[in-house]
Amino acid sequence: MVGRQRRRESLVFAALIPTLIALSAAGDTFVPGDRLEDGGSLVSSDGSFKLGFFTPGKSNFRYLGIWYNQISVQTVVWVANRDSPLPNRTGILSISINGSLSLSDTKGVAYWSTPPTRVAGPVAKLLDDANFVVAGAGEGEYAWQSFDHPTDTLLPGMKLWVDRRTGLTKNLTSWKSDDDLGTGDYTSFLDSRGDPQIILVQGSKQVWRSGPWVGGRFSGIPEMRSYGIFNFSFVSNADVAYYQFSTRNKSVLSRLAVQPKGLIERLVWIQGVGEWNVFWSGPRDRCDAFGYCGIFGVCDANESPMCRCLQGFEPKSPENWSLRDGKDGCRRRTALDCQNGTDGFLLLANAKLPDTSGVMVNEMATEECREACLRNCSCTAYAMKEMMNGGRSSCILWSGVLADLRVYDDGGQDLFVRLARADIGTTGEKYLQLGWNSSSRVFRAGGSDHL
Ligand SMILES: *[C@@H]1O[C@H](CO)[C@@H](O)[C@H](O)[C@H]1NC(C)=O
Ligand SMILES: *[C@@H]1O[C@H](CO)[C@@H](O)[C@H](O)[C@H]1NC(C)=O
Ligand SMILES: *[C@@H]1O[C@H](CO)[C@@H](O)[C@H](O)[C@H]1NC(C)=O
Ligand SMILES: *[C@@H]1O[C@H](CO)[C@@H](O)[C@H](O)[C@H]1NC(C)=O
Ligand SMILES: *[C@@H]1O[C@H](CO)[C@@H](O)[C@H](O)[C@H]1NC(C)=O
Ligand SMILES: *[C@@H]1O[C@H](CO)[C@@H](O)[C@H](O)[C@H]1NC(C)=O
Ligand SMILES: *[C@@H]1O[C@H](CO)[C@@H](O)[C@H](O)[C@H]1NC(C)=O
Ligand SMILES: *[C@@H]1O[C@H](CO)[C@@H](O)[C@H](O)[C@H]1NC(C)=O
Ligand SMILES: *[C@@H]1O[C@H](CO)[C@@H](O)[C@H](O)[C@H]1NC(C)=O
């Protein structure tokens, strides 16, 4: 069942149906026979959110949507008819006896609708968390909910969710612009392949990934660990994976939105100033651009040039590298030995773990993990996932290429990259701290490390 949520106040609101609610569309509920005309609205019971008709920015069109009801800036968090706005104020929302919501104009032209449900006595209700739901009397689950059909915004309690068996995702897709809320260019969702990551795509092109969830945060958002005001959670099992957040103090308003220009922003409302503040946004720099330094390349935003090859690798197209186009990436200098057991590992500290869409994750301790990698000729790197609350440790094994790798000053993970003995050097140590080393800097080697 998609986004199963415990129904709150179900008894109370079921009991009210035959009496009070059927008489009026006012308040937070809506039943067959009610009409919500342009100008009318539903308000959640605690007054937090409002559902109604609005015109964004310089648009001439009318949309049906949900916005915060208690702040001074109209901030829309969900839109019903994003790709078919009404040309004028003739929109009417109604709910049929079969539980289908429909938005039509006075001439009966349909602009938006939801599928019929099987519930008896359907009631639509705007909840205090902005979820607009359809449920039937006595039913334990929502037959339809707006949280299952997000627009561009993730709110507290909403799940960025993927069905791991079917790969079906809940997408956040940007507006075309602040004036046109139609389906825009950028989409973010949880990619279930390998170790799940939130990714941002522009059409079919991947532009950013969060990295996998490692001990309470995403590997590619190291600053996440210091967010004391949020409660983040991530669940991944055989059937589903999802990410959600809440604010520890319910009076702190925060939302995650995919912006028309291709940024994912976490915004927080600053009551005193009366505006939204960008708390975090990604991609945050050029190193965050997916594959900026190519395969087996490492990006460091504090260095110039920002791309280098991992130790033991060299640029695949030196001409392009010398022009600071790192996309072709790097190739291994010395083939792995594999059979003879002479390969070793280099430690890359403070890494954003490379793309995990093709990895294997197993519960294993560090030493087992290293052995498992050495045993498998296609294994090219491993990393341990820190588990919170004393959970069992997990081992991530990469095979083939390492893509979209960067390093941070602080707060990244340890990545162990498999190398042939010849490329580890003659130090005889099992691990070598891989720091910045001018002799391994590829641009300098190419004689073009200058602006
Ligand atoms: C509203 O727009 C519809 C569709 O363009 C049109 O048929 C209708 O006449 C308009 N109504 C008013 C009152 O302008
Ligand atoms: C549900 O109700 C709507 C509006 O009355 C109607 O158009 C639709 O055909 C109904 N669907 C089913 C399956 O009964
Ligand atoms: C979500 O976005 C992806 C990538 O653009 C697309 O393939 C998929 O069909 C979308 N899913 C839904 C439910 O819109
Ligand atoms: C954090 O969120 C999880 C999942 O929603 C919830 O179970 C837990 O109680 C929350 N913790 C706090 C401190 O709010
Ligand atoms: C929650 O935030 C509000 C507004 O910032 C503040 O007045 C209140 O004291 C906070 N409550 C707690 C328990 O921290
Ligand atoms: C260098 O970059 C250009 C433009 O992206 C590309 O067409 C070419 O194939 C690259 N060179 C090599 C050797 O890959
Ligand atoms: C592995 O050892 C064998 C026998 O000593 C040798 O012939 C072979 O070249 C070695 N392979 C590698 C990749 O070093
Ligand atoms: C080696 O790794 C590949 C890729 O992850 C995997 O398909 C294969 O099953 C592994 N082989 C063994 C023997 O574990
Ligand atoms: C830098 O590279 C040189 C030559 O490969 C090596 O001797 C030295 O130990 C390296 N330094 C660091 C910090 O890795």
TrEMBL record:
GO terms, biological process: recognition of pollen; response to other organism
Catalytic activity: L-seryl-[protein] + ATP = O-phospho-L-seryl-[protein] + ADP + H(+); L-threonyl-[protein] + ATP = O-phospho-L-threonyl-[protein] + ADP + H(+)
CDD domains: B_lectin, PAN_AP_plant
PROSITE patterns reported for this sequence: BULB_LECTIN (PS50927), EGF_3 (PS50026), PAN (PS50948)
EC number: 2.7.11.1
Residue ranges constituting the Apple domain according to the UniProt record: 338-420
Residue stretches making up the Bulb-type lectin domain: 27-147
Keyword Disulfide bond among UniProt keywords: yes
One GO MF term: D-mannose binding
Span of the signal peptide: 1-26
Domain EGF-like, residue spans: 283-319
Domain of life of the native organism: Eukaryota
UniProt keyword annotations, A-Z: Disulfide bond, EGF-like domain, Hemagglutinin, Lectin, Mannose-binding, Repeat, Signal
Pfam family, one: PAN_2
UniProt xrefs under PANTHER family: APPLE DOMAIN-CONTAINING PROTEIN, BULB-TYPE LECTIN DOMAIN-CONTAINING PROTEIN
Function, as annotated: Involved in sporophytic self-incompatibility system (the inability of flowering plants to achieve self-fertilization).
Entry protein name: non-specific serine/threonine protein kinase
